[in-house]
Amino acid sequence: MTEENRQFRQSHRTELGGDEERRALKNAWPEVVGLTAEDAEKRIKDDKPESHVQVVPPNHFVTADYNEGRVRIFIDLSGRVLKAPVIG
Predict the structure, then answer these.
(1) Which pLDDT does position 13 carry in this prediction?
(2) How high is the pLDDT of residue 25?
């Protein structure tokens, strides 16, 4: 972590607080791998209520654009999360 990032986090820690800071900085959800898409979406929405969650079925194409308001959940044939959803 660069000194600039460390200073940014420290300056915002007092403004946001513990859980609020974690939610503001969170950009990936590895803990939802293996859950159903519905359960994963609930957890993501708990951390980022303003995010647009997009469930992507197997073998579906997605655009390569980056959207900081979007979180894609890639699922397998049984509807379980295959890999950690990330913002983008």
Answers:
(1) 47
(2) 74
